[in-house]
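Re: [ENG-882] Designed sequences occasionally contain unexpected residues at chain ends

Forwarding the minimal case from QA. Structure tokens:
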């Protein structure tokens, strides 16, 4: 059912249906009066008959922004954050929402001659913290921006800076950086991810362009 501005994907006429009922741990959606419902399959086809089979067919999408080109470091110091971020747009009609994770291809950033910059090392594993790199180290990490739609500022801080934000290493296994528990609007959620790096004042870091692959993934809950 649709018009110029709206579309109803699943609908049915039944003798009862209370919509969503929920408690702390569970959510129930039900209808009554349908016949011949359920899943039927053969070698070539699958039939999912009934309202809830239609209603549970949820969709999710994520945008693919351009690569992040981080600000250069001359000698030692921090990479300026002005260009060190990208925005991922997520849309889903899933009423339970979505999870957003990041994963690095390798823990270190590497240049053309195999020199490396290490992963950020938080005091507590998997716990974002105010940026701090020893003078003898070089490290890189990530931060979920304060203007992200689903950001938890208690976890990630209230500023997009090294001193005011909270940072974490990007591990080589999936780590959830954001989530929401209901569907998005039609325009979707914008999740802004910053990447930072620093060369300590007593660290000899060979020159070059250092790169690493980071995968951002979203899944329905």
């Amino acid at each position: 059912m649709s018009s110029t501005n709206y579309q109803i994907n699943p609908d049915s006429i039944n003798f009862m249906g209370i919509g969503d009922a929920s408690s702390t741990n569970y959510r129930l959606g039900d209808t009554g009066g349908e016949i011949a419902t359920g899943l039927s399959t053969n070698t070539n086809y699958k039939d999912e008959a009934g309202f809830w089979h239609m209603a549970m067919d949820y969709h999710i999408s994520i945008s693919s922004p351009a690569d992040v080109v981080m600000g250069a470091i001359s000698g030692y110091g921090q990479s300026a954050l002005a260009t060190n971020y990208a925005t991922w747009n997520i849309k889903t009609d899933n009423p339970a929402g979505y999870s957003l994770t990041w994963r690095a291809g390798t823990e270190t950033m590497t240049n053309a001659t195999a020199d490396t910059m290490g992963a950020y090392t938080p005091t507590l594993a998997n716990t974002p913290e105010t940026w701090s790199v020893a003078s003898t180290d070089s490290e890189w990490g990530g931060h979920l921006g304060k203007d992200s739609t689903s950001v938890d500022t208690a976890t990630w801080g209230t500023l997009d800076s090294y001193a005011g934000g909270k940072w974490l290493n990007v591990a080589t296994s999936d780590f959830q950086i954001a989530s929401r528990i209901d569907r998005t609007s039609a325009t979707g959620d914008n999740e802004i991810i910053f990447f930072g790096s620093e060369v300590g004042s007593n660290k000899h870091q060979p020159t070059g362009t250092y790169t690493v692959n980071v995968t951002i993934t979203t899944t329905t809950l």
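QA comment: On inspection the terminal residues look reasonable. The mean pLDDT is 90. Proposing we downgrade this to a documentation issue.
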